């Protein structure tokens, strides 16, 4: 393997709503914590890559502070260039090893795609860092692969590593891996073969990729004075037993949240629902506003109850929010796309809205968005859609 694999095979990063301070603060609020306000917080992302996840947060939350660190020098350089282009003053991207981070306290710490891919001693240091750098009411996000759902993919990984044990060049490893997976031909093998180069190379072909039982992850956190708070993914376990829930769901991946062990947590309950906003791509009437969230009181007009919404949350059908992601609802006849969206649209068909969702544009929408500079008249029904996606600057 190359000494800098993320430079050899770039790993572009994208906005992940599960890592946004709003999601972390929502799960914390449900458990009775008073996490830092989304609009005024300090966020650390370990393994930030080119900043594709962190930069949009910094853009839309100008009063918050963001630090991203990564060993991939090329990715960090690209991220810094984008930060300069957007003229952001509240974000710092550094080429650094997180083990050398010696200062600072953070309200939210994000480590996506690291835990399972680190050697045991470095993995232990990652958890220790959370205990050292987390604010008293802070929340840490750590994602990892889990048993039992990872077993089939783990077997395929072992086959690939064995067969490719003498192949070193990244492109050749990728080419041979796809050939082998096609030969195996199972649904899981075909799905793995269809993965883009970055995922296949840095996930399944990585030197380290250790799945863990949830119970062992929870115990690891406890050894460093941290406790399990909840998950940034689907709602709480149906039977109030997270490990049993993983068995039932055959869960292969978790996005777990941790807080300090001394913090007393309450059990999620329907009576807590009025304090939240709600979003859903599939549940009406929330789907009409998606990806923007809707306050509880507005849902009362549709006959929604606290119990209804809590049950939907438990099933993972709706997500909770504590921030309303304010965006321009009346674009007018001279709409202005956000500087972030315009800069991203110049580079690709993917842009990020205020709700931290990745929005894919076709070529005509991309051209239209780039024309929304606030100076010219733009009359199109698609501009209303841009507004709902949170792609327009406020005119106030």
Which SSEs are present, and which pair or pack?
Elements: H1 5-8, H2 21-30, E1 42-46, H3 54-60, E2 65-70, H4 73-86, E3 91-95, E4 106-111, H5 120-133, E5 134-145, H6 151-163, H7 170-184, H8 187-193, H9 197-204, H10 214-223, E6 226-231, H11 242-249, E7 253-260, E8 277-279, H12 286-289, E9 294-295, H13 296-299, H14 306-314, E10 319-321, H15 339-347, E11 350-352, E12 358-360, H16 363-371, H17 381-388
Parallel strand pairs: 1-2, 1-4, 2-3, 4-5
Antiparallel strand pairs: 5-7, 6-7, 8-9, 8-10, 11-12
Helix pairs in contact: 7-8, 15-16
What would a concise description of this structure say?
This protein is an alpha/beta fold and 396 residues long.
Describe this structure in words.
The structure is a single chain. With 396 residues, this protein is α/β, with parallel strands linked by helices. The chain folds into 4 domains: 9-147 and 211-260, 3-Layer(aba) Sandwich (Rossmann fold), CATH 3.40.50.150; 151-204; 276-318, no CATH class; 339-388, no CATH class. Helix content is 39%, strand content 16%. The strands form 3 sheets. A 7-stranded mixed β-sheet has the order 3-2-1-4-5-7-6, sandwiched between helices. A 3-stranded antiparallel β-sheet has the order 9-8-10. Helix 4 links the parallel strand 2 and strand 3 (91-95). Helix 7 runs antiparallel to helix 8 and helix 15 (339-347) packs across helix 16 (363-371). The longest helix has 15 residues, at 170-184. The radius of gyration is 22 Å and the shape is globular. The relative contact order is 0.12. The mean pLDDT is 94.
